[in-house]
Amino acid sequence: MPENRTARPRTVRPYVLARFFAVSTFQAAEDPTLIPIFREVVGNINFPIILTDNAGIPRAWKHIEVPPEAVPDSVLQRAAVTGIIPPAVKRIQETAAKLDRRHGPIKIQRLGGPDVLGLVHYGEPSLVAQLRWVPYIEFGVVLMLFVLGFVGFRAIMAGEQRSLWAALAKETAHQLGTPLSSLLGWSAHLREAAAGADRSPERLEAIASEIDIDLDRLNKVASRFGQLGSVPALKEGDLTEVVAGAVSYFRRRVPHLGREVEIVEHYEPIPRVAFHRELVEWVVESLIRNAIDAADKPRGVIEVGLSWRSGRHEVELSVKDNGRGMTPAERRRAFAPGFSTKRRGWGLGLALARRVVHEYHHGRISIVESVPGQGTTVAVVLPQAPSPNPGSA
Questions:
Q1: Is 367 left (phi over 0), alpha (psi -120 to 50) or beta?
Q2: C-alpha–C-alpha distance, residues 216 and 222, integer Å
Q3: Are residues 197 and 342 in the same domain?
Q4: What count of other Cβ atoms lies within 10 Å of the Cβ of residue 92?
Q5: CA 242, CA 281: separation in Å to the nearest integer?
Q6: Which of 131, 155, 172 lies at the terminal end of a domain, its last residue?
């Protein structure tokens, strides 16, 4: 049986029913046994369908804007005889043309004969037409979610950058606080010495030396922040000297900070370590300063120690205090930027110390122990400097 083929893929169910409609139309009209079957099938059609004769006059239709009862058979017969097309019939023809643009019409032929008796024009169920938009809707939703996610990500990144810059500025002020407080103290001592009877050059020289130390620390603070933007060069050196120097600095300045804290040192013989002096000094001073700030007892005790792990070829620096301690939840967030247990802390000291130890020195920093009300122990582990002679132990 000839048929009109188009390049568009047909919807299987409407196409099959339309073919059945086209084949069985005239058989059902002539064979009483097929009439009930034909009516049952046509009654279950849920898509637009129009049957036209060779002159293009609609003879039957369903599921279009014009209901079948709106156009009597007499009007259709008169249109076929006179050629005058009423508006309602013209609307049906326009609908048929619209359906043909999506699916080519199917010819109605009598079995055993080549003559074409009419055409079946059909469309798709409304649900299928709606489902055609589903991929576009899904794409639009995914695109909208992507745009919202991107905007949200940019907003989060911008917020984090603002927080980071604010925290960095506050940490700078925090780092400058110790030498500035010390300088104010030495300035008061200098005025007392100048106004009092004891104006010995030795005392004035001692005060001037301490002032020089604090001024040197101010220069170190500025240099340390400059080192964060680049990869520093590591050099072998004596880590004990650096740690002892930081302890000595804070021991002389604890009274100016308004704290009664004793710093105890335990140093074991250790090999040389490759490190950046200014950045490691910063880490040590940050740990000691945190221990001083954590002091909440009449007499605080801070233990600073260096030990050698021969089995792993590592040097461990430990700073232990008997201060307020941390809860398990606080320990998990201790190294997160912006988190601090101090009332006036900025939450960047441990975060920067972790970056210096992990990224620049390939070491480790961790909270070994912390009990609320009893104190905290922080450990920094650095690898031993490689031996210049590969064959040596």
A1: beta
A2: 10
A3: yes
A4: 26
A5: 6
A6: 131
- The verdict on residue 150 lying in a domain is no
Q: Letter for the amino acid at 47?
A: F
Q: Are residues 170 and 311 in the same domain?
A: yes
Is residue 103 domain-shared with residue 208, that is, in the same domain?
Answer: no
Looking at the fold, whether 285 and 234 belong to one and the same domain comes out as yes
Measured over the CA atoms of residue 112, residue 116, residue 117 and residue 122, the dihedral's sign is positive
Is pTM beyond 0.70? Reply is no
Residues in a beta bridge with 235: 275
What is the rounded (10 degree) CA torsion for 80, 83, 85, 91?
A: 70
* Residue pLDDT, tens place only, 181-239: 677 777 777 777 666 656 677 777 777 777 877 777 777 776 666 665 566 788 999 99
Distance between CA 288 and CA 302 in Å, rounded? 8
- Residue 251: give the domain boundaries: 163-383
pLDDT in tens, 89-138: 899 899 989 988 888 888 877 666 677 777 888 887 777 767 778 888 88
Strands 58-62 and 49-53: antiparallel
Q: Indicate whether 85 and 207 sit together in one domain.
A: no
Answer yes or no: do 168 and 126 share one domain.
no
DSSP 8-class letter at 357: I
355 and 222 in a common domain: yes
